[in-house]
Design a protein that fits this description.
The chain is α+β, with helices and mostly antiparallel strands and about 675 residues long. It is about 35% helix and about 20% strand. The protein has 21 helices and 23 strands. Helix 4 runs parallel beside helix 6 and helix 5 packs across helix 6. The longest helix has 20 residues. It binds adenosine-5'-triphosphate. It catalyses: ATP + (deoxyribonucleotide)n-3'-hydroxyl + 5'-phospho-(deoxyribonucleotide)m = (deoxyribonucleotide)n+m + AMP + diphosphate. It is an enzyme of class 6 (ligase). Belongs to the ATP-dependent DNA ligase family.
Amino acid sequence: LKSSGNDPYPDWKPGEPVPYAALCTTFSLIEMTTKRLIILAHASIFLRQVLRLTPEDLLPTVQLMINKLAADYAGIELGIGESLIMKAIGETTGRSLSVIKSDQHEIGDLGLVAAKSRLNQPTMFKPKPLTVRGVHQGLLTIAKVQGHGSQDKKISGIKKLLSAADSATAGKGTKGIDIKKDKGGPSEAKFLIRFLEGKLRLGLAEKTVLVALAQAAVAHEAALKGGKSPSPERLAEGESVLKQVYSELPSYEVIIPAMLKNGIFNLSDVCKLQPGIPLKPMLAKPTKSITEVLDRFEGKEFTCEYKYDGERAQIHYVSPDSIHQYPNATATLQKDAKGLSSIFSRNSEDLSKKYPDILAKLNTWIKPGVTSFVLDCETVAWDMENKKVLPFQQLMTRKRKDVKAEDVKVKVCVFAFDLLFLNGEPTVKKSLRERRQLLHESFQLVEGEFAFAQHSNTNELEEIQSLLEESVKASCEGLMVKMLDTEESGYEPSKRSRNWLKVKKDYLSGLGDSLDLVVLGAYFGRGKRTSVYGAFLLAAYNASNQTFETICNIGTGFSEALLEELHKELSPLAIDRPKPFYEHSNVPKDQPDVWFEPRLVWEVKAADLTLSPRYKAAAAEVVGTIGSGDGKGISLRFPRYIKPRDDKKPEEATTTRAVAEMYRRQEAVAKESAGKGGVD
Ligand code: ATP
């Protein structure tokens, strides 16, 4: 693909705001292909164009491309419900709600419904064209509306944008367009509505935008210097800089201005992990047995830590004297006499209002000389009387917001297991042994409030076995086994790494790991359960094409009281028909009674995995496996509800790729035991 000549790329005058139409044309080109490299090329050519003509719009352009208005820690949520959007489409285009609903019933895609509604609407005057920065600002205003009358304000915000949105499909008149076949073309109305729904569905993954941005920046900088097109090696170098910087500092708000000022190749010097910008935590790979751990870590030094069953917490702190060194921290961290501090969840949500009791005592665990840090920990419910860890269920009873430190009934203890930043320096590149030493040197135990994760550096099978048993007796979930020395033991933000393995207590039975699944639908109960939902349809997330693929029905593990609560929680999320990004069998008897917006994530355990035509999880990935074909997906046998995962967004649910991996491992184990005469 070239960025000049008679290509379809729209141009605009240098310095002018980027037209939203230009972005939508790019979206439409991306939507028309499934080839990853072409998608990447479209995205990077467009970003290069923005860099060349209107670099000040690069940030909102990237944000609109990744369907996020701000970094995760800013807590800005869009995900506007269908009913509100339908109302706004109706009111903007002068069509009745019932017509919009019937269109939605027929087309099944609100973006296309909006495009069609705009097409049919006679325009009296030509509205001022939308710009990328204008759309970004408008959407931000909608997202931030809160409190009394917020619904109406949101609707009027949507109407404002939608009435200025163009409906025309590329190069065609408005007559005779088959909106479904045409996918709605580059219609601004379509992409606006999809953005509001939280899914652009272009097949443009967030990671691809990051790579596209790196390529655009490298090519642009080479052109500025009058050089030739950059070599593949140079492009790869730029990519690796940006990826590494973004993993430690996942904030385009900080990175993009720094890149525009200093150039992409100097980014690692100016953009480093810092207090105030939460990073995505390092994650572990599941294992099914201690012997598997020993096989994987053979010949390497490793350590086993208790796996506490609470909530992941990343604690950031800056002392009063050091605040001036961290300009980004004042906006995100809470300020008090002790300095700046906050607690972030595993998906960078600010938990400070949930755990004011932790922040109030934080100064008691810091040793003298510590001026700033980022800690990786688990918050766990604590039994004050018996001085021991309590099960996760106790932690769940705590309020999530506006907790007053003095009202707290369920006490929590922080168990620290890693140190990512200390006194002005990131520590992530150090070995775990070094980080652990710094952690112990910089903090002190405060009974029932702060402790270090229990650990042992053994590699003896029996010792690990007994440590696992002890951990379970201490109300933990099992062990985390981590590489201890060498560079392999560095902290890998946002990565599910082979250098961290989790061994859960029930590894011997079942799958070795639970799954976190999204609730897409429900079935009304029978007998005692007729007034509530008695079973639910769950799905895993396919990150490569941003769809939710169904994996099982679940009706086990719920108390009557819980079912009532779930009915209350889920009823407002009901929608008329499945979203176009849900993949499920279309056989009538397989359909749930109610469909929902994708919001809730539940942890689920199961006996094993099997192939089924009814469910679609990882169907594309298992093609070629014995028994697959005809669109059969992987499904869970004997699924059981464990707990809600409020700390995970639907897009953070177990991926279909992970499900496929579990299935392959299960099949490999089955084959192996068959070879051994069926005895494991
Ligand atoms: P995943 O996405 O890996 O499924 P999860 O949040 O569902 O993550 P688990 O798979 O059960 O959690 O295990 C990893 C989690 O265990 C971490 O995110 C952390 O919250 C918790 N944890 C408890 N103790 C430790 C420890 N010593 N080291 C690392 N993580 C720990």
